[in-house]
Amino acid sequence: MHPPYSGFEEHPGKVVGFVKALDLEADLDLLVAHWCRLRCGIPLLRHQHGREGGARFQDCIFCGKSTGKPVIHCVASCPHWCTHRQRFSAAIGVSPEQSQLSFTVQFLSTGHTKGTMSVVLQWARDIDRGA
User: Fold this and answer.
1) Domain-embedded: residue 1
2) How many domains does the chain divide into?
3) pLDDT digits over 22-44, tens only?
4) How much is the pTM?
């Protein structure tokens, strides 16, 4: 099995052009930056006793549940993001219960329609700001 990042583009260049056509009210560059940061795994989404640690399993910063895969947990199962997850799930027609990994890969991939990209960028912004 390939790691989830194997299906991503190296650069978000194509996406930036696509996203500019969305006519979003917010600052586009900032929205794309939040999404790119999440794709790279930059936001610290877990902790150990309130600090960044090296343990394989640490607690989610949003719900406190122990997790070894923080991005997959935040996107596909964290109760804190239930509303965002439901909006994204309805937009793509796939439930995270079917496969958390494929749901997360779809969230982080660049093959979104105009309607889903808006949901993705706003959710990525909220995750990045929360972290």
Assistant:
1) no
2) 1
3) 666 566 667 778 888 888 777 77
4) 0.72
